[in-house]
Write a structure and sequence with these properties.
This protein is α/β, with parallel strands linked by helices. The protein has two domains: about 140 residues, Aspartate Aminotransferase, domain 1 (Alpha-Beta Complex), CATH 3.90.1150; about 270 residues, 3-Layer(aba) Sandwich (Aspartate Aminotransferase, domain 2), CATH 3.40.640. It is about 35% helix and about 15% strand. The strands form three sheets. It has a seven-stranded mixed β-sheet, with helices on both faces. It is globular, with a radius of gyration of 21 Å. The chain starts with 14 loop residues before the first helix and ends with a helix. The protein binds pyridoxal-5'-phosphate.
């Protein structure tokens, strides 16, 4: 029976159009979804960049079922349950050296808010309470809460929501098609773009700035790969001025770039890292912030009976999420999934770049198992060409994403070569039909 579609106010959806021709998913397994007509659909975007181990993995399903039967909920304030500690320990084990403190949230947006608050509170706790300013980057996406859209740099996500947080500025984005179009892997040019941070620091004075937040690979804006040397340069400038560096690894975490985190892949360690998505493979909502021991320790002063960090969520370290997280990390380890993107990167990149030369394709970008294909917008109707291609691919049994006039591809890390071919061939046909 078809549900009544009226009441559900849908997130980030052209809902009037959607409700005229709904796309309803009803079942999933491995690399595939099935829709309400029983049609099989290849998942080219890991759900929403989150289902890194594939859908309905047996260990994860069993762990959630068992946890639901054993204990549904435990309060995380002044109480805890063992799996929260176990998962934190496992996560710290995967993280870059020194990032061994874990704060649990329920989403990427909450992880971002948590990291921003930690940064400001850290400076205050160590006697530099004037360091309150936050620096984001143009085209950045850091979720949809007020902190996240303030440091974020996508105008469509900001313009409707008033004046946002005070004391936020942005450095320029790294997209530079004139120098870097059709780069395979990291673009050659653009380490110098990081120097824009010096401009912003000169304007506000370093003594007022708490943190800089960037996505190592900007995902939601359309897959912008960091130019060679760019992240190292950001790190150097932050160190020089006593500014914390936050990596928002909500989509780059958990194997997307060929190692557990983009920080490990690119060899640049931030001070704080926001995570979500791949942490539970999307099976139960969960996020986390990883913090350096040295940041955590600054809070651990004052009387021992006092709360050190006045922040947390009712569902922080939820038992179902912890059970799902532990089983997901086990699945990654069992199957070597956190390094699989490194093995498939060359094949995936070559397949994607075979689309060069097709009508309206103006750039192709890739790293690990993430790719973006940028198209010329239709005159006067931005996003329409990419939307048409997205719908055409879905119709042909491949689910992708579009943002602006960019098609994004980020499949589960269990993908096989033949499925990469299927994605690229389907996309090729759709791009040709849209010409
Ligand atoms: N940060 C980044 C880099 C993201 O890509 C996303 C979501 O795509 C978020 C934060 C927000 O995550 P959520 O939708 O779980 O709140």
């Amino acid at each position: 029976m078809k549900p009544d579609l009226d009441a559900f106010w849908m997130p980030f959806t052209a809902s009037r159009q959607f409700k005229k021709a709904p796309r309803l998913l009803t079942k999933a397994s491995g690399m595939y979804y099935w829709d309400d007509q029983g049609r099989q659909i290849l998942d080219g975007v890991a759900g929403l960049w989150c289902v890194n181990a594939g859908h309905n993995r047996p260990k994860v399903v069993k762990a959630i079922q068992a946890q639901a039967a054993e204990m549904d909920y435990a309060p995380p304030f002044q109480m805890a349950h063992p799996k929260a500690f176990e998962l934190a320990e496992k996560l710290a084990g995967l993280a870059p050296a020194g990032m061994n403190k874990v704060f649990f949230t329920n989403s990427g947006s909450e992880s971002v808010e948590t990291a921003l608050k930690m940064a400001i509170a850290y400076h205050r706790a160590r006697g530099e309470g004037q360091r309150t300013r936050l620096i984001g980057r143009e085209r950045g996406y850091h979720g949809v809460n007020f902190g996240g859209i303030s440091v974020g740099g996508i105008s469509g996500n900001r313009k409707m929501f008033g004046t946002l947080l005070a004391g936020v500025d942005h450095i320029r984005h790294t997209h530079d098609p004139a120098r870097n179009a059709f780069s395979v892997g990291q673009p050659e040019h653009g380490a110098d773009i990081a120097d824009d941070l010096e401009r912003v620091i000169a304007l506000h004075d370093a003594s007022t700035i708490a943190a800089v937040i960037v996505e190592p690979i900007a995902g939601s804006t359309g897959v912008l790969i960091p130019p060679k040397g760019y992240l190292n340069r950001l790190r150097e400038i932050c160190d020089k001025h006593g500014i914390l560096l936050i990596f928002d690894e909500v989509i780059t975490g958990f194997g997307r770039t060929g190692t557990p985190f983009a920080a490990t892949t690119f060899g640049v360690t931030p001070d704080l890292m926001s995570l979500a998505k791949g942490l539970t493979g999307g099976a139960v909502p969960m996020g986390a912030v990883l913090a350096k021991q040295s940041i955590h320790d600054v809070f651990m002063t004052g009387p021992e009976h006092m709360i050190e960090f006045a922040h947390g969520y009712t569902y922080s370290a939820h038992p179902l999420a912890c059970a799902a997280g532990l089983a997901t990390l086990e699945t990654y380890a069992d199957e070597g999934l956190l390094t699989r993107a490194a093995q498939l990167q060359a094949y995936f990149g070559e397949a994607l770049h075979s689309l060069k030369g097709l009508p309206n394709v103006i750039d192709i970008r890739n790293f690990g198992l993430v790719g973006g294909v940028e198209l010329t917008p239709q005159t006067g109707e931005p996003t329409k060409r990419a939307l048409g291609i997205f719908l055409d691919c879905y119709d042909k049994g491949v689910m992708l994403r579009y943002t602006g006039d960019i098609i994004a591809i980020s499949p589960p890390l269990i993908i096989e070569r033949a499925q990469i071919d299927q994605i690229v061939d389907t996309l090729r046909g759709a791009i040709q039909r849209a010409a």
